Amino acid sequence: MALDLKSYSKQNLEDARDRYLEDLAAIPDHAFDASPAGAARSAAHFTYEIVCVNRRLATRMRGEDPGPFNPTLWETTPDEYRSRSLATQAFSESTQEFLDVLESIPAEQMEREIPTPSGTTTPFDLAMFCAMHVNYHDGQLNYIQAIHGDTSIHWTD
């Protein structure tokens, strides 16, 4: 039996989204936009990065050009994203935007080539990167929780 790439990647991203939201809600209010040790990125900062990347990936998957990659795009978190409620909403909306685009891709086209400036990718590759990126930053949320004494795994509750 062949792996259903669309269902597999969709489930991975939905699971990553749900874990991230659980862990984001568990960050203490005073720690949401605070830089651990004065140098590390805050939860607000990398949540904003996820929003930017999710939107770029959705644009690419739609067959549109999101413009040149610019990692400095999220170096400075806009003030409105320093609000937990707005950051959480933007994260949810950007993830849903990507899931909506993924849903529009016929299952048999999950391995079709999508040209990029550095070569080609596929809808499956983009979806798996999107999920991995959310999971990566979820690990950072877990670390911030632990720094503040919270060692619970919130998404297993």
Characterise the protein shown here.
The protein has 157 residues and is mainly α. It has a single domain (5-156), classed as dinb family like domain (Four Helix Bundle (Hemerythrin (Met), subunit A)), CATH 1.20.120.450. The protein has helices at residues 5-26, 43-61, 84-104, 123-147; strands at residues 114-116, 119-121. A two-stranded antiparallel sheet has the order 1-2. A hairpin with a 2-residue loop joins strand 1 and strand 2. The mean pLDDT is 92.
The CATH architecture assignment turns out to be Up-down Bundle
What is the H-and-E element order?
HHHEEH
Provide the CATH topology: Four Helix Bundle (Hemerythrin (Met), subunit A)
Rg, alpha carbons: 16 Å
Mean pLDDT: 92
Instruction: Give the total of domains.
Output: 1
The CATH homologous superfamily is called dinb family like domain
Low-confidence stretches: none
Count of individual helical segments: 4
Global morphology: globular
How many beta-strand runs? 2
Structural class: mainly alpha
**In whole angstroms, how far apart are the ends?**
33 Å
Residues in helices, as a percent range: 55-70%
The description of the largest β-sheet is:
2 strands, antiparallel
CATH class: Mainly Alpha
Strand order of the largest sheet: 1-2
Taken as a percent bin, the fraction of beta residues is: under 5%
